[in-house]
Amino acid sequence: MDTKELLKKVRQIELSIRGVVNEVFAGEYHSVFKGRGMEFAEVREYQPGDDVRTIDWNVSARMNHPYVKVFDEERELTVMILFDASSSENFGSRKQMKGDVAVEIAALLASSAIRNNDKVGLIIFSDKIEKFVPPRKGRKHILRVIRELLYFSSRPELETAAKTDLSVVLEYLNQILKRRATVFLISDFLAKGFEKDLQVANKRHDLVAIHLIDPLEMQLPNVGLIELEDLETGETVLLDTAVSEIRETVSENASEEKLKLEKLFKSIGIDYVDIYTDRSYVQPLTRFFRMRAKRFH
C-alpha cells in the first residue's frame, strides 16, 4: 500500500468510525473506565458523616478545628491497544478479514479514548514486537495510530508465516508500562502458553480481551473437498466437508477451544468480548460497556 493509498484509507476509517464514537461510545466509554485513582483537591472543615481517615491532622492542629482532605477522581487514563498482526489475522470467509475488523475496533477504542482526553499507546505484535507507539494525546496522534494499524494489517504476506505469541507482547507491556493502564488486547488468541503472563498483566492493569472469530472457524459448510491452510505454520490439510462427522468434529473442537479460553478469562477475572467477523462489532462492544458500567456503579 503506497502513501497516497494509505492516507486515503486512514481518512475512510476515520470517517466510518466518527459517527459511532460520537453517538454511541463517548458516553459509554466515559462511564466505564475510571482514572488511576484520586488526586488531592483541597481541604475543608469537617462535617458530620465525613470519613475520619480523610482528616488532615496538620491543618486541623493549626486551625484548632478538624479539617478533611477532599479528593477528585483522577480522570486521565493511559489506554494501551495490543494489536495482533500475525498471519492468522489475514483470514476471512465473509466481507472482512479478522485483521480488517481489528483495525476498525482499535481505531474506535483509540478515538473514544482521545475524545475522553486520555493518552493512547499502541503495541503491534506477532511472534515478536512489530511496533511500539508511546502513549500520547491529540488527533494527530490518533491518525498516526490508525496509519500504523493499516500499514501492519495490509503488509504483503511474509516469506515466513508470522505466528501469534501473546507472552511476548504481555511481557513487553509489563516492562515498558510502570503505571496502571486500561489495556485492550485484540487477537484471535490462536496461541499457547500465555496464561501466566496474562494473569500478571491483569494484576497490573485493567485488561480487556477482544476475541476475534470468523464463523468458518466455528462451523464448516458442506462444500465437498476443501484444502485448509494454517496461515501461521503454512501446513495444509485436505478435508471432505460432505462427511457430516468431519464437520461435527471441527465444530466440536472449535467450541471446546473457545470454552477453554472463556474459562481462562473468567478464572483470572478478565473482561472479554467475542467479535464475529460476519456481524457488526458495535452492538457487542456497546453491550459490554453497558454491562460493565452497571457492575462498577
SSE diagram, text form:
Elements: H1 3-32, E1 37-45, H2 57-63, E2 67-74, E3 78-84, H3 98-115, E4 119-125, E5 129-136, H4 139-153, H5 166-176, E6 182-187, H6 195-204, E7 206-213, H7 215-218, E8 225-229, E9 236-240, H8 244-268, E10 271-276, H9 282-296
Parallel strand pairs: 3-4, 3-6, 6-7, 7-10
Antiparallel strand pairs: 1-2, 4-5, 8-9
Helix pairs in contact: 1-3, 1-4, 1-9, 3-4, 5-6
Provide an overview of this structure:
The protein is α/β, with parallel strands linked by helices and 297 residues long. It has two domains: 3-32 and 76-214 and 269-296, Rossmann fold, CATH 3.40.50; 37-74, no CATH class. Helices cover 45% and strands 23% of the residues. The protein is built from nine helices and ten strands. The chain has helices at 3-32, 57-63, 98-115, 139-153, 166-176, 195-204, 215-218, 244-268, 282-296; strands at 37-45, 67-74, 78-84, 119-125, 129-136, 182-187, 206-213, 225-229, 236-240, 271-276. A six-stranded mixed β-sheet has the order 5-4-3-6-7-10, with helices on both faces. Strands 1-2 form a two-stranded antiparallel sheet. A hairpin with a 3-residue loop joins strand 4 (119-125) and strand 5. Helix 1 crosses helix 4 (139-153) and helix 1 (3-32) packs parallel to helix 9 (282-296). The longest helix has 30 residues, at 3-32. It is elongated, with a radius of gyration of 23 Å. 31% of the residues are buried. The model has no long low-confidence stretch (mean pLDDT 81).
